[in-house]
Amino acid sequence: MNTPVARTAADLGPARYTWGGDEFLMVEVSEAMSLAANFRVMAIAAGLDADRPEGIVDLVPANASLLIRFDPDVLESTALLEQVKQVETAVREAQLGKLQTRVIEVPVWYEDPFTAEVEARFREGYHQDPSGTDLDYAAAVNGLSGRAELIARHHSQPWLVSMVGFVAGLPFMFQLTEQQKQLEVPKYLSPRTDTPGLCVGHGGCFSVIYSVRGGGGYQMFGVAAAPIYDSAAQNPDFTDTMVLFRPGDIVVFRPVNQDEYEHIQTQVDAGRFHYRMTDVEFDMAASLADPEGYNARIKEALQHA
């Protein structure tokens, strides 16, 4: 299921540029997701944002590409393309591999009753293995002993938020571990029309947290205990933004039981819940050289937050 991907900036060539109508420019750094590709995308977005030309409406970084929306009445397409290419060339030649970011701990109730109820309604005709659970299926296709080992593998190593989208505030996360150790699971055969809010799902090599209840096709592993999208700014982490995650964040999942889940829910309802998080500098080269050792240092920094 694994395909070769770029491991370092040197493995990546120049970006590919394509237009989407009169208002969009797509910068494709690579055809496959990798740390190197995602870092280059974030570096290009940061470079453009630091010296933002008048007329750029939005910058939307994704796993291995950057979508730029612009106003053609303010910024000519040729001028935009020239500036973006200059930033992309500078980033490529610098081979940037460090990122100032945050580590955020996310409490998760694995094997929860909410996803179990939805799973029961969407087995026949929707799932590859109607006889078991999503965790059972994910463990089997990854050659693991069972759901306990699958859950341990899921929360044992941190995840990088490579992009945010699909619905408001939903993070796509790429696990910071060797490629052969990454969990990979096919999506449902047919998408569900229901997914619990804050469901922790997995499709391909990506984990997500569904910010709101709705349709979805990723395998369901559990539910996060606190909101990641808060339009009412009820809790302190949302006073400046209604969306918790941004590309480049590092997520550490922490398993909780029912009692702790319900305690966190009480804090959320009272407007007192605060995510444990801290600022860090993420070094891509150090992570690739010693993933487990570097991840241990990331998690240690979080413990001091």
Description:
This protein is α+β, with helices and mostly antiparallel strands. The protein has eight helices and twelve strands. The strands form two sheets. It has a seven-stranded mixed barrel with strand order 5-10-8-9-7-6-11, surrounded by four helices. A four-stranded antiparallel β-sheet has the order 1-2-4-3, covered by helices on one side. The protein is globular and about 55 Å long.
Short description:
With 305 residues, this protein is an alpha+beta fold. The protein has helices spanning 35-50, 77-94, 113-121, 134-141, 147-156, 258-269, 284-289, 291-303; strands at residues 16-20, 24-28, 56-61, 65-70, 98-110, 159-164, 171-175, 199-203, 206-209, 219-224, 250-255, 277-283. 30% of the residues lie in helices and 24% in strands.
Radius of gyration: 20 Å
Which runs of at least 5 residues are low in confidence (pLDDT < 50)? 1-6
Portion of residues in beta strands equals: 15-25%
Query: What is the approximate shape?
Result: globular
How many beta-strand runs?
Answer: 12
Helix content range: 25-40%
What is the SS-derived class? alpha+beta
What are its keywords?
305 residues, alpha+beta, 7-stranded mixed β-barrel, 4-stranded antiparallel sheet, 8 helices, 12 strands, disordered N terminus
Question: What is the element layout, followed by pairings?
Answer:
Blueprint (H helix, E strand, L loop, with lengths): L15 E5 L3 E5 L6 H16 L5 E6 L3 E6 L6 H18 L3 E13 L2 H9 L12 H8 L5 H10 L2 E6 L6 E5 L23 E5 L2 E4 L9 E6 L25 E6 L2 H12 L7 E7 H6 L1 H13 L2
Parallel strand pairs: 5-11
Antiparallel strand pairs: 1-2, 2-4, 3-4, 5-10, 5-12, 6-7, 6-11, 7-9, 8-9, 8-10
